[in-house]
Amino acid sequence: MDIADWRKKIDEIDRRLVELLNERARCVAEIGQIKRQNGLPVQEPNREREVLRQVLEANQGPLDDAALRRVFEQIVEEGRSLQRRFSEADSPFGIPKKQD
């Protein structure tokens, strides 16, 4: 494959990553709704440590553990932010409407 082929492959992977990240965000939103209904805190340090442990356990490279940790720490933080915005949300599942 040449560079253009590799770039097309990366573009497709990026589209799939966006789909998966949004699917994950929908799950996070559902959990946030349950937390809100039950008066539970948004941040759960034990669960966040478990998520990171599982990610690192699944890692087979070439990204090293530190790189994946940084990526998933940001993913988890964005999930927390989504849950915190529930009180201002006006769309289903507590997901704030997309800003134009």
Question: Can you give me a brief rundown of this structure?
Answer:
This protein has 3 helices and no strands. It has 100 residues and is mainly α.
What does this structure look like?
This protein has three helices and no strands. Helix content is 69%, strand content 0%. α1 packs across α3 and α2 packs antiparallel against α3. With 100 residues, the protein is mainly alpha-helical. It has one domain: Up-down Bundle (Chorismate Mutase Domain, subunit A), CATH 1.20.59.10. It is flat.
What attributes does this structure have?
100 residues, mainly alpha, Chorismate Mutase Domain, subunit A, 0% strand, flat
Give the topology.
Elements: H1 3-37, H2 45-58, H3 65-84
Helix pairs in contact: 1-3, 2-3
> Count of DSSP helices?
3
Q: CA-to-CA gap between the ends?
A: 38 Å
Number of strands: 0
Report the CATH architecture.
Up-down Bundle
Strand content: under 5%
Helix content: 55-70%
The CATH topology corresponds to Chorismate Mutase Domain, subunit A
**The CATH class:** Mainly Alpha
Low-confidence stretches: none
N-to-C SSE string, H for helix and E for strand: HHH
